[in-house]
Model the fold of this input.
Amino acid sequence: MLEAALAALAVAGGTAVVQAASTDAWNGLRSQVARLLGRGDPGLERAELERLDQTATALRGLEPAEADRVRTRQEVSWQTRFEVLLESVSDPQERSRLAEGLRALVEEQSAHTGGGGGAVSGNVFNGPTAFQTGANSRQDNRFGTGS
Done:
């Protein structure tokens, strides 16, 4: 079982892969992920590139009704791959090196998407308020007595 910080990093990695799939950052992130998961084995790296291409294909042209479900499934799939990678290494130094590689690709993707992960600070809301961050989101709000 991974410690909480590494588990959170794996979650962030899964999210980064899905967020990058439809952006200009995809080719760079795709290569980084394949190198990280391939761990120096060209055959494993090619297999990871194929998996990444399958993810990009699965995320293309989604109907709004299915988009969230498919994105979530893909995020969990990549999260699991990163967890397995980190759990498979018993040497603390090697695990730390892999975690740094994963952290670097998450940070790079965050920079391409505007960073911050939806963090918001310094706001004051008085009265009914609807607030949402993120991309590809939908929220319907109705205020008043007829809601």
Observations:
- Residues 116-121 have pLDDT under 50 and may be disordered.
- The chain has one domain: 4-116.
- The two ends are 45 Å apart (CA to CA).
